[in-house]
Amino acid sequence: KCGPDGNFSNGEILPFGPIALSPSAGENAVRMKNGSDRMCMPAPSVEQFVDAVKQTVLANKRWVPPTGKGSLYIRPLLIGSGAILGLAPAPEYTFLIYVSPVGNYFKEGLAPINLIIEDNFHRAAPGGTGGVKTIGNYASVLKAQRTAKEKGYSDVLYLDAVHNKYLEEVSSCNIFVVKGNAISTPAIEGTILPGITRKSIIEVAESKGYKVEERHVSVDELLDADEVFCTGTAVVVSPVGSITYKGKRVEYDGNQGVGVVSQQLYTSLTSLQMGHTEDRMGWTVQLN
Ligand code: PMP
């Protein structure tokens, strides 16, 4: 098999670069632990988790695309199972990691995405499971996402379920709003996923002199922003070209929809991930 862009060939052992487990695989392990506590499941320890990721990647070296041509997507999963009818935590658990080569998310480099705010759908409610990475969370976004895609949008931006006014996140990424030298992103208060890329980008942005605020960010601020971008493992840093809200479309100028700040942060993070710049953050782990 090959990646979606067909950039690498079947079975060939390819040059194997550093893998970015930012800001250390421990962050992902801790997030799984928090999620598994919420789901009444046992979780592997940080050491077991990190070791399993390393072993899985090494055992699948042949599928690692050459630097710049794509990535080896790593998905650790904890599954509950067993013979039980009632509503109760599962009696048995399986921890598995699957990997898949993927091409670059955007073949032409950075490309702006067009989001719609769907205020009839909510992704998470206070006290719910929105703050942890559990598969059930994705059930609530399927319909909204499909409807948005049918209308030509890239994805849906969700608002908080209490006021229907503050930004939460997109179906599978976190959101940032740029105004002047300030970058704002919704605070982690239990309804949005604490993205590892979100955390990395906050550190990278601060190291570049931006003022980063984690707080409530309103739709009005979003529509008045200079630039908007999303972050996630798959999308890395993804500039937002337009937002549609209550039938009105706001476009962000930038350079063909790619703002200066989004471009700068994207370049910084990907250069670090690919080993093109020195990793002063200690986020990358060399496996061979
Ligand atoms: N929010 C949601 C709902 C997600 O599924 C993801 C992707 N994992 C993110 C945010 C971004 O998180 P990360 O940067 O850890 O990939």
UniProtKB/TrEMBL annotation:
<keyword id="KW-0663">Pyridoxal phosphate</keyword>
<dbReference type="InterPro" id="IPR043131">
    <property type="entry name" value="BCAT-like_N"/>
</dbReference>
<dbReference type="Pfam" id="PF01063">
    <property type="entry name" value="Aminotran_4"/>
</dbReference>
<dbReference type="InterPro" id="IPR033939">
    <property type="entry name" value="BCAT_family"/>
</dbReference>
<feature type="modified residue" description="N6-(pyridoxal phosphate)lysine">
    <location>
        <position position="133"/>
    </location>
</feature>
<comment type="similarity">
    <text>Belongs to the class-IV pyridoxal-phosphate-dependent aminotransferase family.</text>
</comment>
<dbReference type="InterPro" id="IPR036038">
    <property type="entry name" value="Aminotransferase-like"/>
</dbReference>
<keyword id="KW-0100">Branched-chain amino acid biosynthesis</keyword>
<keyword id="KW-0032">Aminotransferase</keyword>
<dbReference type="InterPro" id="IPR043132">
    <property type="entry name" value="BCAT-like_C"/>
</dbReference>
<protein>
    <recommendedName>
        <fullName>Branched-chain-amino-acid aminotransferase</fullName>
        <ecNumber>2.6.1.42</ecNumber>
    </recommendedName>
</protein>
<keyword id="KW-0808">Transferase</keyword>
<dbReference type="GO" id="GO:0008652">
    <property type="term" value="P:amino acid biosynthetic process"/>
</dbReference>
<dbReference type="InterPro" id="IPR005786">
    <property type="entry name" value="B_amino_transII"/>
</dbReference>
<dbReference type="InterPro" id="IPR001544">
    <property type="entry name" value="Aminotrans_IV"/>
</dbReference>
<dbReference type="GO" id="GO:0009507">
    <property type="term" value="C:chloroplast"/>
</dbReference>
<dbReference type="GO" id="GO:0052656">
    <property type="term" value="F:L-isoleucine-2-oxoglutarate transaminase activity"/>
</dbReference>
<dbReference type="GO" id="GO:0052655">
    <property type="term" value="F:L-valine-2-oxoglutarate transaminase activity"/>
</dbReference>
<keyword id="KW-0028">Amino-acid biosynthesis</keyword>
<dbReference type="InterPro" id="IPR018300">
    <property type="entry name" value="Aminotrans_IV_CS"/>
</dbReference>
<dbReference type="GO" id="GO:0009082">
    <property type="term" value="P:branched-chain amino acid biosynthetic process"/>
</dbReference>
<dbReference type="GO" id="GO:0052654">
    <property type="term" value="F:L-leucine-2-oxoglutarate transaminase activity"/>
</dbReference>
